[in-house]
Amino acid sequence: MIIGVPKEIKNNENRVALTPAGVTEFKKHGHTVYVQTSAGEGSGFADAEYEKAGATILPSIEAVYEIAEMIIKVKEPIESEYTLIKENQLLFTYFHFASSEPLTHAMISRKAICLAYETVEKADRSLPLLVPMSEVAGRMAIHEGAKYLEKPLKGRGILLGGVPGVRPANVLVLGGGVVGMQAARMAAGLGANVTIMDVSLPRLRYLNEIMPANVNTVYSNEYNIREHIKHASLIVGAVLIPGAKAPHLITRDMLKDMNPGTVLVDVAVDQGGCIETCKPTTHENPTYIIDDVVHYCVANMPGAVPYTSTLALTNATLPYALQLANKGWAKACRENAELKLGLNVIGDKVVYKGVADAWGLPLTDVETLLA
Fold first, then answer.
1. Residue positions in the annotated binding site for NAD(+)?
2. What are the catalytic residues?
3. 140: which residues sit within 8 A by CB, 6+ positions away?
4. Per the database record, which ranges form the Alanine dehydrogenase/pyridine nucleotide transhydrogenase N-terminal domain (predicted)?
5. Which residues fall in the annotated binding site?
6. Domains plus CATH for the chain?
7. Phi and psi (nearest 5°) for 335?
8. How many CA atoms lie within 13 A of 303 on its CB side?
9. Would you write out the chain's pLDDT as a tens digit for each of its 371 residues?
């Protein structure tokens, strides 16, 4: 198969979808790899390293899309890429269709094969291609939240861990999944008082067993959220419903109950955000203020630490990408239920329920298209 790796062009996205080590693996299986020039520079990989591994460097994004049968990316295509996508071309990347109606319709109109990292799912309901970036984003949420709590950045002027004689900050984490667990652990390590909320009692029991003593677990409901936001200096939104829009756990009217300078970090922004006042921001302009509350809603948080993020992501994606290349997407998805759940759009048909529900589109049974 002919593999194409374009340079990411979303604002401040420095990750790359394939490392030179990944090129070597594809070459071992007899595939051809084309990489756009400078695609890996943001993550610390020079063109010469890709060439040494066996890739061919192409001068433009147009050239990569034109020649490739499978495009491997990190982020969803942006508007300037839509017309480059060919009918029946396989795109393997993060899509988050449920948060973007224009992207959904664009991929349908291009009749592409869209296999989304974020909905590849194991039998135990875990999301193996989302986990590594969730781990990065969860940890970063505390780094960024702590920074924007500083007074010059319009925060409350609170040090998360406090100092002897001064109480540490209260941190509220909404969601006890991978993001929430990593955020809570990082905040606890800095000495904050941490509360983590979830609707799953088995998950709360598990977290209660493994978390440090300064992490408390509380059942998530509107009453409890409203009570805890009154005292929290940093609130992290970490709720995910695979392939669907995140629910709004913090509504606009709740901002008035927060202290001025409270910081909200919505890690669920890729899926529409779990904070009603959330809107996607960039690393260039990461925050905005509503009702004296600082909102940090960067949609590609791991892009700020691209070396770590690229290695973590490609460690997870490469085995799946090799299956797609070795067998072709249809056979690979027939034989691997995890990959089959990654299919969101096939040609002009939506085959993932969360996407169809989000935009009121007809849902086609994926099995009929794979038969």
1. 134, 198, 203, 220, 239-240, 267-270, 298-301
2. 96, 270
3. 301, 302, 304, 305
4. 4-137
5. 15, 75, 134, 198, 203, 220, 239-240, 267-270, 298-301
6. 2-119+306-370 (3.40.50.720), 134-299 (3.40.50.720)
7. -90, -15
8. 22
9. 999 999 999 888 999 999 999 999 999 999 999 999 999 999 999 999 999 999 999 999 999 999 999 999 999 999 999 999 999 999 999 999 988 999 999 999 999 999 999 999 999 989 999 999 999 999 999 999 999 999 999 999 999 999 999 999 999 999 999 999 999 999 999 999 999 999 999 999 999 999 999 999 999 999 999 999 999 999 999 997 776 678 899 999 999 999 999 999 999 998 888 999 999 999 999 999 999 999 999 988 998 999 999 999 999 999 999 999 999 999 999 999 999 999 999 999 999 999 999 999 999 999 999 98
Which residues are known binding-site members for substrate? 15, 75
- 7 vs 18, 32, 274, 300, CA distance in Å? 10, 17, 30, 15
